[in-house]
Amino acid sequence: MKLRVGMAQINPTVGDIAGNLEKIKSFISVAKKKHVDLVIFPELAVIGYPPMDLLEKERFIESNLSAVETLTKQAPKMGVIIGFVKKNPHQPGMPLLNCAGLLYNGKLTFTHAKTLLPSYDVFDETRYFQSPSRVKRTLFFNNKIGISICEDIWNDKDFWERRLYAKDPIRELTKQKVELIINISASPFSQGKGELRYQMIKNVAKRYNLPIIYVNQVGGNDSLIFDGGSFALDEKGRLIAQAKRFDEDFVIVDFNNLPGSEITFQEDELASIHQALLLGIKDYVKKTGFKKVLLGLSGGIDSSLTCLLAVQALGKKNVCGVLMPSPYSSTSSVKDAKKLAENLGIEHEVIPIENLFSSYKRSLNKAFEGMSEDVTEENIQARIRGTLLMALSNKYGYLLLSTGNKSELAMGYCTLYGDMAGGLAVISDLPKTLVYRLAGYLNREKEWIPKNVLTKAPSAELRPNQKDEDSLPPYTILDEILHSYIEENKGKEEIIRQGFDADLVKEVLEKIDRNEYKRRQAPPGLKVTSKAFGFGRRMPIAQKFHH
Amino acid sequence: MKLRVGMAQINPTVGDIAGNLEKIKSFISVAKKKHVDLVIFPELAVIGYPPMDLLEKERFIESNLSAVETLTKQAPKMGVIIGFVKKNPHQPGMPLLNCAGLLYNGKLTFTHAKTLLPSYDVFDETRYFQSPSRVKRTLFFNNKIGISICEDIWNDKDFWERRLYAKDPIRELTKQKVELIINISASPFSQGKGELRYQMIKNVAKRYNLPIIYVNQVGGNDSLIFDGGSFALDEKGRLIAQAKRFDEDFVIVDFNNLPGSEITFQEDELASIHQALLLGIKDYVKKTGFKKVLLGLSGGIDSSLTCLLAVQALGKKNVCGVLMPSPYSSTSSVKDAKKLAENLGIEHEVIPIENLFSSYKRSLNKAFEGMSEDVTEENIQARIRGTLLMALSNKYGYLLLSTGNKSELAMGYCTLYGDMAGGLAVISDLPKTLVYRLAGYLNREKEWIPKNVLTKAPSAELRPNQKDEDSLPPYTILDEILHSYIEENKGKEEIIRQGFDADLVKEVLEKIDRNEYKRRQAPPGLKVTSKAFGFGRRMPIAQKFHH
Fold it and tell me: Which class is domain A282-468+515-520?
């Protein structure tokens, strides 16, 4: 096996077939200059992943096929492996195949169709694709190569306790005496996923004594952040090449000239989450056609962290902070918010909401006659702020970022059309304790977020002397319960057995279930844990099962 | 074949296993009194359909198994066919099986696992279930019976042009010489679906010369409305028994005593949509634990129709209308809204928004300095109304209904957090032209909706002399384009070839695509067409493919 291979880790935009084609061509040019024999692109690189129901559009499939044809004809004398969609020529069956094509010398010389189609969490591939009946190796420059796509490599029977698929395409390929396994992927980021992926694929390499080249998509597409981090392993499972994470990259794996010593794989949890969020913000803003963002600054930790991330992702000139103090806002909150804006050097506006709040109370005076104040009045304040922020968003053309965290979204400790308003929920998959950890991490070199924000007790400041812990258990406890229930999918009894108070667990789980209706109307949120609210967690609203 | 069979068309609540079990028992009691040999319940009757990710909860599956065990032990000497979930005993494979169990004499004597698992539109069954490798018939009172579940019967090779599945479980069963096909279903309503279902199953009966008993779920579950309409056909495909549509029912099919003449199948389009919406409203309100609803009344057709439907579904005492006139509201609109409230005999409140609008303008005065009025100010008015309605909803504990139609939701001619606010979008799957047709239909005997509402030009009344047709093409044209694009999934060129202006088509499709972000945050809407926005149409937001 003497190939010189380029890993082309690109950031395609979903549906932008012309743009993606240009990007692919430019990477091919680089590959040509670097004299590689074979350049490899990620899964569905031509259309971007996940294309979702765009796949149901005839012209979408046709455009993607034309793009592959163009590439085939124009590509220089070099192998190109590229992800695209084919129509399933067989009837009956699902209409499409998720393919990896090998282009060479003006021809599409080989096609592998993805065999294992994930249909869990955020994945819906059985909605569109047919799994082929057989897997075959191909020959390239006389090397026997096994091409696979993403999930195809995630079903090793010794690695996984519970396997979803009867087939193991990698095993099939090894039976055909391949000398190299290639896997093209669009594998989204979540906490610890880089390490899992690396260990799992390393295990496959060692098990079959085969080198593996793994090329992953990079970039944010709505809620999903693809972290790239493409890599190559030799037949001993040693890391011999590695691409950047969270950025485009082109990396050469030269089997004629392997590095003397193994590269070290490292994943730092907070650094990864940080980079993931920056990429998620940057790509969502860019790919939806915005330049600037705005957000409300309360002086609390959530909006402070969101603002800092936005500035890091987009630059301080592209972020606008809005302070909307109410009669219940403390002087220190307003001070903290201003301090943050100054620290970050961003434009900020102050629009007090007291008059608007009074106006609403007057307007509702008759309707509310004889009824006492309650959460209604808290929500009104939040919705005044939502309305003001959306007005600024509409007038200026800035995208509104919402700033809620996962713990409050879980508990419904947030106001629909109020603080939940926005186009992107930046930290909606970060439990409150992780919000604090990430804020501390980002403050490690410089006090971007005023220290007081990190040390004061969290409060929604929607009534006098309100504190989060009046309504919620302490976040350290709450977040553990949330993790068990949402990410680990444990039941009430199981969580109580972990040592939590039975009434507390019951109350927390009930609140989570009851607030599904709020989450259904939340903006897309950047996924960074193994189970985010949104598309990967599909719960009925009108339902009566509890825990 | 001499069985006396009961079709138990029940309305289960998703996840309410205890409640569903009670309901099932009560239908079994009725069946016992009626001396049937066999009583048949719908697909997943124990847990309600669609259970969605509740299926991923261990205790949910356990509870459903306990319920079946209880039923098995307690059921009288009579066959009971019931839909429930089993764990897949085989590894590897998806964790669950969607089953129909035959209970008799204290035992679960037979289980059929659903073989064809839909994973298109609103269906996600491959997310949870394994398709079994074989289909077997069973014996009951010496009758050879083929049991199937919903999609299992939707794959006849002569009926469908394009088939998704290689297997045909009905064909498999007929090869095993069955004398009766039973199909238990949870098949949701859409326009014309009753007729399609009837014709399709009639075709199967005639083709194999076999009687078929088809038992469907009834009831609204979030966006989906199950229309019931269970029926039985004899071996000539003649309709021999038929249950109500849109309501629970128990109907006997006695093969010892078949009716002399065939029953007529009838489906009236508007009557079906009307009943579907009433059931959808009633069940969503009940199953989420509400009693009363409120909604804004603008004097326009959408809110008038929604209000009338709510009154018909819930009773006039449970509906509260809110008039929120602005400086741009015409006198006639306010008059029409009041007239509607009087016609329907509902409580209504009037809360003018002029002062609030001025308050917002003052608050934003500095931020908007030097900028002219635009859609921002229109959105502010809509969001004031949204905030007032949500305040009333919070204070009174009434569910807020939103009143937007499908045409405006498609075009983004609606305001996020404004008129889009609410817990249930009643008519969000009705194109504007269908809104008019349905309103006319409901007004046929009595003028519930003031005539002027049906005849005046539609307007959002958010600026002086505004008319919908200033911003949108005439609805008759728009709705045809929408139908082609959304329901028929046609591309731009194909729609233009139907005879529409090219620029108009381009503009309409672009608006539909661009407004995906608004729809992502819309409340669940009742599905009545073959393709509704929401869960059954999954489009990326940050994407660049156009038509």
Answer: alpha beta
CB contact (8 A) between residue A356 and residue B359: yes
Residue contact A387–B388, C-beta within 8 A: no
Tell me the per-residue pLDDT of B169-220, one tens digit each, with 9 for 90 and over: 999 999 999 999 999 999 999 999 999 999 999 999 999 999 999 999 999 9
Is the N-terminal amide bond of A50 cis, ω within 30° of 0? yes
User: Is the minimum CB–CB distance between B539 and chain A shorter than 8 Å?
Assistant: yes
Cβ-Cβ contacts under 8 Å between A and B: the total is 285
Q: Is B392's Cβ below 8 Å from some Cβ in A?
A: yes
User: What class has domain B4-260?
Assistant: alpha beta
Per-residue pLDDT reduced to its tens digit, B234-256: 999 999 999 999 999 999 999 99
- C-alpha distances out from residue B524 to A15, A52, B332, B451, Å: 26, 20, 31, 30
- Contact yes or no for B44/B216 (Cβ under 8 A): no
Distance in angstroms (rounded) separating the CA atoms of residues B83 and B103: 11
Residues 368-387 of B with CB under 8 A from A: 368, 371, 374-376, 379-380, 383-384, 386-387
Distance CA B261, CA B264 (A): 9
DSSP A322-375: EE---TT--HHHHHHHHHHHHHHT-EEEE---HHHHHHHHHHHTTTTTT----H
Is B150 a catalytic site residue? yes
Å between B473 CA and nearest CA of chain A: 24
- C-alpha B179: how far from chain center: 34
- Is the domain spanning A4-267 CATH 2.10.109.10? The answer is no
CATH 3.40.50.620 range(s) for chain A read 282-468+515-520
Q: Is residue A339 annotated as a catalytic residue, yes or no?
A: no
ipTM of the prediction = 0.97
Report CA-CA distances (Å) from A356 to A120, A383, A418, B379: 46, 11, 14, 16
Kindly report the pTM of this predicted structure: 0.97
pLDDT digits (tens, 9 = 90+) for A13-72: 999 999 999 999 999 999 999 999 999 999 999 999 999 999 999 999 999 999 999 999
In sequence order, the β-bridge partners of residue B485 are: none
Side-chain half-sphere exposure of B426, counting CA atoms within 13 A: 32
Which long-range CB contacts under 8 A does A203-208 form with residues at least 24 apart? A203/A156, A203/A158, A203/A159, A203/A237, A204/A153, A204/A156, A204/A159, A204/A170, A205/A181, A205/A233, A205/A234, A205/A235, A205/A236, A205/A237, A206/A236, A206/A237, A207/A156, A207/A158, A208/A170, A208/A174, A208/A181
**Is A14 an 8 Å CB contact of chain B?**
yes
Q: How far is CA B13 from the centre of its chain?
A: 14
From the options 3.40.50.920, 3.40.309.10, 3.40.50.620, 3.40.50.300, give the CATH code of B274-468+514-520. Answer: 3.40.50.620
User: At a CB cut-off of 8 Å and minimum separation 6, what does B255 contact?
Assistant: B1, B2, B3, B4, B5, B211
Residue B202: Cβ within 10 Å count: 18
Centroid of chain to Cα A296: 23
